[in-house]
Design a protein that fits this description.
Shape: elongated
CATH class of the largest domain: Alpha Beta
CATH architecture of the largest domain: 3-Layer(aba) Sandwich
Number of domains: 3
Oligomer: single chain
Strand order of the largest sheet: 2-3-6-1-7
CATH topology of the largest domain: Rossmann fold
Distance between the termini: 26 Å
Order of helices and strands: HHEHEHHEHEEEHHEHHHHHHHEHHEHH
Number of strands: 9
Radius of gyration: 40 Å
Structural class: alpha/beta
Largest sheet: 5 strands, parallel
CATH superfamily of the largest domain: P-loop containing nucleotide triphosphate hydrolases
């Protein structure tokens, strides 16, 4: 249905490594040239490292097809194995039956094959894909394969291809002997925006697309940003965008369709729900509260009041004796400490109750009701507010800025960040308010047609 709707001969964004759809970016071409030069120069070990989805397997097939008339080749991709199984997979790929052979017999068979190829004047090239999965013991066995040689040349050229974890394996001190034998290391980095554009055009052209502007400029920019320049991610986005465009009867794929595809492919909400119980379980257990015994019916002043009363009476008596007394004034009557009337001393300042604050000072400040919304890639504050509140105006923007003090440019918000939105819109509502909002508050970047 999609092929007929967009008038395509075949699916341009399939997942199989079809060599016809292979696009060689600048770094792909450089890696291919290095592989070819290393093989022709008989350098022994070569390494190719790239992130998942960068098309290294397709590049290796292309490299081996160029050696078809010059060398005997073998391609091993089952790397979750031991040393014996690796040699077995190698001989099976060469079409040699291995039933009943032990490891020494398989080595002898391989050695005879290599000598025969040398007499015929051909090289032997072994490519091991997904080499990051090989154990150190198996990598050591691979190193020993390079011992198949004559005094003047290596009988086997070996290419180790894998993901960045392969570099970590080779950097291990225990792999020093193997690392020293690797003559060249090639890396393939993700595409830039120009390569993403050329990649999409190339695959559409191979598939027979008659409309080169099927993907708009805005859609291509969003694909380049979200795919991180990885061809496999580009294929997934474009395939789903064309399927959605066909279902929506859209002849061109624009930013809106790409944004919807990105939202549909987002696994973050599912991951959060799955991880929630684990996060709760991972919290450290709080220690049980410790309760101290409390003596009932005992006042806080029960121990200090009698002592303070006696001290106050003594101090008062001494003051009346030492300090001179004015005769014109009436004489103070001394108070006996043994009087039956209790002398209550003032409580220490630290124990006096604090003056109660006015009712207005302690009244809680009520924050406006707000909801938390996660920003999707490419969304602006306008998109989020209109979707959530149905309006966008100056009052709403001021409320959002109060709820999100960190907010800078409302037209450029980092994807994945959570922003607080008022539960109810502010400012004018109704048809007149909505019309005023639509005429004055739409950002220029959103209003443009891509």
């Amino acid at each position: 249905m999609v092929l007929d709707y967009y008038k395509l001969a075949e699916q341009p964004f399939g997942v199989t490594p079809d060599s016809r759809f292979l696009y060689l970016g600048a770094q792909h071409r450089e890696a291919l040239a290095s592989l070819t030069y290393g093989t022709e120069s008989n350098l022994g070990f070569l390494a190719l490292i790239a992130k998942p989805g960068m098309g290294k397997t397709s590049l290796l097939y292309h490299y081996l097809s160029g050696l078809r008339d010059k060398a005997r080749t073998a391609f091993v991709f089952r790397t979750d194995c031991n040393s014996r199984e690796l040699i077995r997979y190698l001989l099976l790929d060469l079409g040699i039956p291995v039933a009943g052979m032990d490891l020494p017999e398989m080595h002898d068979t391989l050695n005879r094959l290599l000598l025969e190829e040398m007499r015929l004047g051909r090289r032997f090239v072994l490519v091991i894909d997904e080499a990051q999965n090989l154990d150190e013991e198996v990598l050591e066995s691979v190193r020993l394969l390079s011992n198949f040689e004559t005094p003047w040349m290596k009988l086997m050229q070996i290419v180790l291809a894998g993901q960045p974890q392969l570099a970590d394996r080779l950097a291990n001190p225990s792999m020093a002997q193997l690392r020293q034998r690797i003559s060249m290391v090639m890396r393939i980095e993700p595409f830039g925006c120009e390569d993403v554009n050329a990649y999409i055009n190339h695959r559409l052209w191979v598939a027979g697309c008659e409309n080169p502007s099927l993907f708009t400029v805005g859609a291509r920019k969003l694909i380049a940003e979200h795919s991180e320049g990885i061809p496999r991610n580009i294929n997934n986005l474009c395939f789903n965008a064309m399927s959605l465009g066909c279902a929506s009867k859209r002849k061109t794929i624009d930013r809106d369709i790409i944004m919807e595809v990105i939202a549909d492919m987002d696994l973050e909400p599912f991951r959060e729900k799955h991880d929630a119980p684990e996060m709760v379980a991972a919290q450290p257990k709080q220690p049980d509260p410790v309760f101290f015994p409390v003596v009932k019916n005992r006042s806080i002043f029960s121990g200090w009041a009698p002592k303070l009363a006696v001290a106050g009476a003594v101090a008062f008596s001494l003051a009346s004796v030492i300090m001179p007394v004015n005769k014109s004034e009436p004489r103070a009557v001394p108070i006996e400490a043994t009087s039956s009337a209790a002398v209550v001393a003032p409580a220490p300042a630290a124990l006096l109750p604090l003056p109660s604050a006015p009712a207005e000072a302690v009244s809680p400040v009520l924050e406006p009701a707000a909801d938390s919304v996660q920003v999707m890639p490419g969304q602006t504050l306008y998109h989020i507010t209109v979707k959530k509140l149905g309006t966008y105006n100056k009052n709403v923007l001021e409320e959002i800025r109060e709820l999100n003090p960190w907010l800078g440019d409302p037209d450029h918000i980092q994807a994945g960040r959570k922003i607080r939105i008022p539960s109810a819109p502010s400012g004018p509502t109704g048809p007149q308010g909505a019309a005023k909002t639509s005429n004055s508050a739409v950002p220029e970047a959103v209003a443009q047609n891509e």
